[in-house]
Specification:
Elements (H helix, E strand, L loop, with lengths): L1 H9 L10 H10 L4 H15 L5 H4 L8 H4 L4 E4 L6 E6 L6 H7 L2 H27 L4 E7 L8 H7 L1 H12 L4 E7 L3 H10 L1
Parallel strand pairs: 2-3, 3-4
Antiparallel strand pairs: 1-2
Helix pairs in contact: 1-2, 1-3, 8-10
Protein name: CRAL-TRIO domain-containing protein
Pfam families: CRAL_TRIO
InterPro entries: CRAL-TRIO_dom, CRAL-TRIO_dom_sf, CRAL-TRIO_domain
C-alpha cells in the first residue's frame, strides 16, 4: 500500500527502468518521516536520474577510460552464503588517490567512476531481485592491503571520501547493507581517530 502511494507521488519522474517495488521499498525503509518526505527525497534522486547524468544508462557504459586505470572496479558477484546479497570488493589500498585527484577533478571522479560503479551495483541488485522476487542488498568490502601512508590520506578522508559517502547515502538509500574494511594497516586507525 505504501509502495503504491509513493509510486503515485513520484510517477512524473519515475522511469520504467527504476520503477520496481524494491527500489521504492528501499526509500521507504531508509528515509524517516511521513511519506511526503520520502517522496520529496526520492523525487530529487529521480530528477538526477533523468538529468544529463542519465543514471539509468550508466551501468551499460564500458570501464575503459584512462581514469579507470587509477581506480579499477573490484570483483562483484552474488554471495553463495548470504541470501540475496551482492558482494563487491574494492581494492581501495591499491588506489593512488593523491595522484588520481591531482590528475582529475572530484567531479570527474564522481561522474566517471563513483556514480557508474554505484549504478553497476544497483543493476546487479535489481537483477537478483527480479530473479528471486525478494529484496537484495550489497556488502561492500574495502580491501586496504598495500595502502601506503602519506599526509594526503587525512585530507582525503575528511574531504572527498566524506562527500562520496554523503552522495551514496543520499542517492543509493539502503542499497549497501554493510561496509567492511579488511587488511587495515596500523596507521589507518590513527587517521580514523584524528578524523573523529
Amino acid at each position: 500500500l505504501k509502495i503504491e502511494k509513493l509510486r503515485e507521488l513520484v510517477k512524473d519522474d519515475l522511469s520504467d527502468y527504476y520503477n520496481t517495488d524494491f527500489n521504492l521499498l528501499r526509500w521507504l525503509q531508509g528515509v524517516n518521516g511521513p511519506i511526503e518526505n520520502v517522496a520529496y527525497r526520492l523525487r530529487k534522486h529521480l530528477q538526477m536520474r533523468n538529468s544529463a547524468w542519465k543514471l539509468d544508462d550508466q551501468h551499460k557504459k564500458p570501464r575503459n577510460l584512462p581514469i579507470h586505470k587509477h581506480a579499477p572496479f573490484g570483483f562483484t558477484g552474488v554471495s553463495k552464503v548470504l541470501k540475496n546479497t551482492v558482494i563487491t570488493v574494492e581494492q581501495s589500498g591499491r588506489i593512488d588517490y593523491t595522484n588520481l585527484l591531482r590528475a582529475y577533478s572530484v567531479l570527474d571522479l564522481a561522474r566517471l567512476v563513483s556514480v557508474p560503479d554505484m549504478e553497476r551495483l544497483l543493476a546487479e541488485v535489481m537483477k537478483v531481485e527480479a530473479e528471486t522476487g525478494e529484496q537484495a542488498s550489497v556488502v561492500y568490502i574495502m580491501d586496504l592491503s598495500e595502502m601506503k601512508y602519506n599526509i594526503g590520506l587525512y585530507s582525503l578522508g575528511t574531504g572527498h571520501l566524506i562527500n562520496v559517502a554523503d552522495f551514496i547515502e543520499r542517492h543509493y538509500v539502503q542499497l549497501i547493507k554493510y561496509i567492511v574494511a579488511v587488511n587495515i594497516p596500523l596507521f589507518a586507525y590513527a587517521i580514523w581517530k584524528a578524523m573523529h
